[in-house]
Design brief:
- It is a single chain.
- 26% of the residues lie in helices and 20% in strands.
- It is α/β, with parallel strands linked by helices.
- It has a domain of 97 residues: Hypothetical Protein Mth938, Chain: A, CATH 3.40.1230.
- The strands form 2 sheets. Strands 5-4-8-6-7 form a 5-stranded mixed sheet, with helices on both faces. A 3-stranded antiparallel sheet has the order 1-2-3, covered by helices on one side.
- A hairpin with a 2-residue loop joins strand 2 and strand 3.
- The longest helix has 19 residues.
- It is elongated.
- The N and C termini lie far apart (79 Å).
- Pfam families: DUF498.
- Its main location: mitochondrion.
- It is found in: Mitochondrion.
Amino acid sequence: MAVRQRAVGTLPNLIRSLRKESPNPKPTNPVVLPSLRRAFSLYDQINLIDNVPEDQLRFQGYTETGFKVNGVDYQGSLLCVGNFLMSWAPTKFSDITPDSLSIFQTVRPIPEIFVLGCGKNIELVNPELRRFIRSTGMKLEALDSRNAASTYNILNEEGRIVAAALLPYGVSS
């Protein structure tokens, strides 16, 4: 108790001495403040790779021949619709046709975005395939498979209705 009284007694003296200092002291080592976006975000507290709800797909890695999804290694091309994952027949970019994506004529609800993983490089999607994807009501995003998997993760994490068709990263035209 005596320590507390002594501390309370010295507090006014401390305040007075601080007021006597220069009103605009120049800092010797200015500290750069973080941006407001970073200061008020929770991004640093979210682990997008490991903390995955059981009912949500998450691409965790890739190889030249396949992908790791929710801790399971898959070989070959994959087709993801929402949180459903299935093997997909195309083995090279030229195999991707409206027939290989015919599932989107029956899937409901229709995904708003279709992420196409083209393999190692981004490929130009032929007009017929673009028309087919547009006719289903989806928007097309063609990327290399590594970035396509990441884009799928982010959109799925946001709760968006998203679909992805990915060739293994080792595929090149």
